[in-house]
Amino acid sequence: MKIDTTRFGTLEVDKCDVITVKDGILGFEHLKRFFIVDPGDQTLILWIQSIDDQSVAFPIIEPKFFQPNYSIKLLPAELASLELTDLTDTSVYSILTIPKIVSEMSANMKAPIIINNKTKIARQIVLQNNKLEVQLPMYMELRRYIVDYTSDDSIRTNAGRNENIASTHDDLTTPEISTTATATEHH
Question: pTM higher than 0.90 for the full model?
């Protein structure tokens, strides 16, 4: 099916990629159908795009990339609501908040979106762990990843050239990224 989005233009979405967020996303409980968009910019940021309101898309990131020890524990009723017995076949995403000052971006570690990869049923669940942050600062983590990723890529593709590639990675401060705040400021 074709979906006309305000952020990404017209996208072709396979019906098997549609995610049903049973209770909606906090603050957007009326929106139930979503799909994930990878803009291909290698920043680790994906988007969960609403099908029900094509102007709504949330930037998301997998916590495992910047917090390898991040783990979630669900109550039996929460597992059952996702048609799961354990977390082996799931994807877990944190919603990012990207304000106008991009360096203040944060990830909600306390209320991740958990997707059953087989059934495509998902829920945003507020976890019981009080040590998890609702606004974990993310800007420097993403900058480090971009520099590391591009540095490794540069070594493979530009062997022998001595360049300071860290200075070329200001793409997280471009106006294009800062405009992403519109869909996320509602949190």
Answer: no
